[in-house]
From TrEMBL:
It comes from Pseudooceanicola albus. PANTHER family: 17-BETA-HYDROXYSTEROID DEHYDROGENASE 14-RELATED, SHORT-CHAIN DEHYDROGENASE/REDUCTASE. Keywords: Oxidoreductase. This is SDR family NAD(P)-dependent oxidoreductase. The keyword Oxidoreductase applies. SUPFAM superfamilies: NAD(P)-binding Rossmann-fold domains. GO terms for molecular function: oxidoreductase activity. It comes from the Bacteria.
């Protein structure tokens, strides 16, 4: 699919992987809607890349529907939708204090898994009603974000790993169902990346983490995630698959 002059919507685009993706797509000529829970963060990025800002909680179907309506009215139907919104949580199933983190588990699944599904659903509805873009009948591409934790979940990552595992498992059945409308669905599973979640790591912890990365032995850069998004969009045969982007790392139990 051509990126230039195509309408794209990126969630979680006020920072991190989403921001890098929004910037890359805009740099390639796309008209980008920057969606984020923070209206200020979305506006900051949108102003800098010449896009539009929409604020929404991805797990709120009504808010996401309203956001898609705003994008349709101002830009048109998004043909590229990238799900980067998400939260990271760390909590043991059986903490020492005996307080079971059920609420934290529920919130993590709500934001990461339900949020991705809600955005995917509204994206599919909008794309399916649009005209095909090429001779293959392509109408759009949806890229979700999992994590290597869906396969290598560490101690304390039960909620996070479960939420990302759900996103990974969703990929193939979604791609198969939406194929009749020419909509592709892909998922990227990043490893250790330079994001807000890793920015506060102590130098010694960071050094230990990077030492476990086979090659390159450094954290990924958000722009490298965005590069893979571009490649997925442009390659029509990439569909229904989860791609690990991780320097060949396999996370240890803790």
């Amino acid at each position: 699919m051509e990126i230039s002059d195509t309408i794209a919507l990126v969630t979680g685009a006020g920072s991190g992987l989403g921001e890098a993706t929004a910037r890359r797509l805009a740099g390639l000529g796309a008209k980008v809607a920057v969606m984020d829970l923070s209206e200020a963060a979305a506006a900051r990025v949108a102003d800098q890349i010449g896009g539009i800002a929409v604020a929404a909680d991805v797990a709120d179907s009504a808010a996401v529907e309203a956001a898609f309506a705003t994008v349709a009215a101002q830009l048109g139907t998004p043909r590229i939708v990238v799900n980067c919104a998400g939260i990271g949580t760390a909590a043991r199933i059986l903490p020492r204090d005996g307080a079971l983190p059920i609420d934290a588990f529920e919130r993590t699944l709500r934001v990461n898994l339900l949020g991705s599904y809600v955005v995917l659903s509204h994206a599919a509805k909008a794309m399916s009603a649009a005209d095909p873009l090429d001779a293959d009948g392509a109408r759009g591409v949806i890229v979700n974000t999992a994590s290597v934790a869906y396969q290598d979940g560490q101690i304390g990552q039960a909620a996070y790993a479960a939420s990302k595992g759900g996103i990974a498992s969703l990929t193939l059945p979604a791609a198969r169902e939406l194929a009749r409308w020419g909509i592709r669905v892909m998922t990227i599973a990043p490893g250790l990346f330079e994001t807000a979640m890793s920015a506060g790591l102590p130098p010694d912890v960071r050094k230990t983490l990077e030492a476990g990365l086979p090659f390159p032995s450094r954290m990924g850069r958000p722009g490298e995630y965005a590069m893979l998004v571009q490649q997925i969009i442009e390659n029509p045969l990439l569909n229904g698959e989860v791609i690990r982007l991780d320097s060949a790392v396999r996370l240890a139990p803790k």
